[in-house]
Each structure stands twice: as structure tokens, then as C-alpha cells.
Amino acid sequence: MSKTSRAYRDAIISLITTIEEKEQESIDKAATILAKAVAEDRLINVIGPGGHSNMAVEETFWRAGGLAPVNAMLDAGTNLIHGAKRSNYVERTPGYAKAVLDSYGITTGDVLVIVNAYGINAMTIDCALECKKRGVTSIGISSTSFANFVPKDSPARHPSGKNLYELVDVFIDNHLPLGDSIVEVEGIQQKMGPTSTFANSFTINLLMIRTAEKLLEMGIQPPVWTSANMPEGDKLNKKYEEMYFPRIKHLR
Length: 252
Prior knowledge:
The chain is an alpha/beta fold. It has one domain: Glucose-6-phosphate isomerase like protein, domain 1 (Rossmann fold, 3-Layer(aba) Sandwich). 44% of the residues lie in helices and 9% in strands. The protein is built from 9 helices and 5 strands; from the N terminus they run H-H-E-H-E-H-H-E-H-E-H-E-H-H. The chain has helices at residues 3-22, 24-39, 54-60, 84-91, 96-103, 122-134, 164-167, 196-217, 233-244, and strands spanning 44-47, 70-73, 111-115, 137-142, 170-173. A 5-stranded parallel beta sheet has the order 2-1-3-4-5, with helices on both faces. Helix 3 runs parallel beside helix 8 and helix 5 crosses helix 6 (122-134). The longest helix is centred in the last third of the chain and has 22 residues, at 196-217. The termini are far apart.
């Protein structure tokens, strides 16, 4: 194993250990909200407003071992498959989030999990502000490192200069290190080895597991997907498919 690969491995282990040790209280609060929503037959709406943050949303959706009532809001505007720079432009467009939330029918009484590694772009902040306007409970997964470092007048920011962690009802810090990438490679000025996908995915999976535990405490069997590639996977999933196909856009 090379020096750089060990450095990357050790940094990721340290990162996920920090999340697990420091965010239990916030995760517990957020899980209580999500479990209540599922108990009331509501969906867990999840959005990753910007570029690679969409991967954290995909991680929760139609996933072996994942909760079935997850409404993944996979807007094409920020999906990298339609253009990386285009995604960058869209996530910085004020007002865009309103149309996305409208198209997914997010309304009073709903809950929305907003996952964005940096927590500062226009779409992210508008998601949080729209939640306040609509009476939607918001849960934010992001970092404070970028939020507290990036100047208020940066073009990467929402015009208000607000940070996600300041606006949501419950905030879970993913402890993303400033700069995202953490491995120094000799001869390359820019560090390599990004961490944001690990941070976002680990954090949101902890949240989903704790939500399932909360449901069990309420006497409710959590609706969890089985891998469709496992024997009888299709059979076990069928009841959830029938339950959620009419309600979850991207299951169909």
C-alpha cells in the first residue's frame, strides 16, 4: 500500500468516525421527525441540490437495505449527466428550487432532507427558505467548514449569503474538511482524494438506520427494500412497489 493510499484510507476512517461520534444527537432528532412522517404514511423527501450531492440522494433510493418510502428528488437540472458546468450554473440560479419543489408537490406538513456538501449555493438555500414558507420541516446535511470560510459575496453563494446550517430545523454536520480533497500527491499542487460523497452517504445512511430503529420503537415494522438481485428479492419488494409506485415519481 502506498503512502498516499494509506493517507486517504486513514482520512476517510477518521471522517466517518467523527460523524458517528459527534452527530448522534442531531441524527436522533432528525430520525424522530422522519419516523413520525413514515408512521403518518408520509414520504421522506430527499434532495441534493447541486452536482455530486445528488449521489447522496441516489444512495437512499431503491436501495438494498434502504427505506422504501423515500421520495428521491432527482432534478435533471443539477445532474452531471446533462453537463457538469451546466449543473454549476443551475445550482447557482436563485429561484430555481421553488419550481423543483413545486414539481414534486412538496407542501405543508411534509419533511425535506436537504443534502449538500457545502451548504451555500442558491438552490440549497432556496430549498431551506421554501420549507419555511410552505410549513415543511427541514433537515440539513452539510458542513460548516465551507460555510464559515467562503466569503459572503462569493459567486458560489446564494445572494443572501446565508448558510444551510442556519436555516434548517435540524442540522447534521457531515464534518467535510475544507477543500473536500485531502491527499497530497508530490508534484501536484491541488490535493486529491475527495471526501464529500463518503461524508454525505455515511451520514444519511446513519439517519435512515436510526429512523428504522425509531419506527420499531413505535411498534411499526420499517418498510425496507431487499436487493432485487437476491433470491425472492422481487417477491419481497412487490408489496412496497404496489404501495409507493403511485406516489414516488422515480419508482415508475
